[in-house]
Amino acid sequence: MLQKFSKEIFSDPDVHHMSIPEFVAEHMANRLNNYDSAVELCSGVGMLCVILAKQINHVTGIDINADRINMSQKNAELYGVSKKTGFVLGDVLAPELLKKQSAEVVILDPDWREGGPKGEFPPLLEKTNPSSKTLFDLAKRWIAPNIVIRAPKTIPVDEFNKYGACEIENVIWDGSLKFKIAYYTPNMEQTIEKEVVFEG
Fold this sequence. Notes:
The chain has 7 helices and 8 strands. The chain has 200 residues and is an alpha/beta fold. An 8-stranded mixed sheet has the order 3-2-1-4-5-7-6-8, with helices on both faces.
């Protein structure tokens, strides 16, 4: 079984369960290292930002939870990237906050917990909390056209296509599909879907 993090990170039980594993974050960093700067909306305890900052010049995380912003700063120190990261306490739906962000790529990672006790999330991106559709529109308008969405495994290709052509990665480890990542760039002409398998 793959270990989620290589260090004892600062977290809480709820967000630790939802946080992206370090090995997946490293994969994303390898994909996004052609960008000089990034912003993550709904950044939780900041682990994706921390790993991205190893390969991207500057990464900003925005979250509405003050405790998680504090833990994000500690995690950046733990991984030695505090000078390459910034964490902002604020509402990711507030245009006045988004207008202040300067980045080449935006990562959206909203909460999926409305899926219920069995974790079966409705096949609609607008049902995340906050809505991925709203976040996508705001990010594209105010920050950058390059957008990455981490989404529940139940989201079908047709739903991703509502936002435009993209590359979809079905992220698999320990023998099962865990979630999906969709990469949107202005030059995409056709949606591509593939499996990305992580093995211990």
